[in-house]
Design goal:
49% helix; alpha+beta; five-stranded antiparallel beta sheet; Immunoglobulin-like; single chain; 5 helices; three-stranded antiparallel beta sheet
């Protein structure tokens, strides 16, 4: 049927004059081009991307920028976390060192309390004297303690005096003469539980010492004095030398 109709129209076209045939053929060709174009547009809309390639590209670019921003944020967070971790490690190391020092000090203080269990409050645990070779000078290390319960920090100065014999007479050489002009006020101390203070003094020529007095002059309260034999002081009070941590 379709073939018969087609041949019928074809026969009628051939029956037309040649110029008219050419116009009809041109019109049919133009119509065919329009139909093909319309079909192409329809096909593109039917199977193409919903928002077109340009819209899709813009969406992907926007998403990429967001991902880059998130990456930078994560990198910054990681850097901050690493810095915080390093700070915590340093703090822990410092705390460990401080704790170790406190443990050593506690052990040392416990040893002092054990030796001087009958004492209470501010006192002199021991003093060690060391001669300066070739001179009449002596260095000393005095260990001071504070065993009072709920004790406040102890502050003040320490002075020495030495009893002995010179020219057959018993005399006492006071701190200003022993220390000279450089330390007439005494050796300063400040501590909570214990402290070792150091100083030097010079004995007069021809003087033979036999006893040393160590006196603490606290900022508040009465002076505290401990008397030790010279030989005892050379060895350390009680004949014991205690080394701090």
């Amino acid at each position: 049927m379709a073939s018969t109709i087609f041949h019928h129209w074809l026969d009628r076209l051939r029956a037309q004059p040649q110029p008219r045939q050419n116009r009809i053929r041109a019109a049919l060709a133009a119509l065919a081009v329009l139909i093909v174009f319309a079909l192409g547009v329809a096909f593109g809309r039917g199977v193409g991307l919903p928002n077109g390639l340009a819209a899709r590209a813009r969406a992907l670019a926007t998403h990429n920028v967001e991902l880059q921003s998130q990456l930078q944020s994560l990198q910054q967070q990681q850097k901050t976390a690493a810095t915080t971790l390093d700070a915590l490690r340093a703090a822990m190391t410092s705390r460990d060192s401080e704790l170790q020092t406190l443990k050593q000090q506690q052990a040392f203080y416990a040893k002092l309390i054990g030796i001087d269990g009958d004492r209470s409050g501010l006192g002199v645990h021991s003093i060690v004297l060391t001669p300066v070779a070739g001179t009449a000078a002596w260095n000393f290390v005095a260990t001071l303690i504070n065993t009072a319960k709920n004790a406040d920090s102890a502050r003040g100065t320490l002075t020495l005096s030495v009893e002995g014999v010179r020219s057959g007479k018993l005399i006492t050489v006071a701190w200003p003469e022993l220390a000279g002009s450089g330390a007439k006020g005494g050796v300063v101390y400040a501590f909570k539980f214990f402290q070792q203070v150091r100083g030097s003094f010079m004995l007069p020529k021809g003087f033979l010492p036999n006893r040393i007095d160590i006196t603490l002059h606290p900022e508040h309260g009465s002076d505290v004095t401990r008397k030790l034999g010279w030989s005892e002081a050379q060895a350390g009070a009680h004949g014991i030398s205690v080394t701090t941590p």
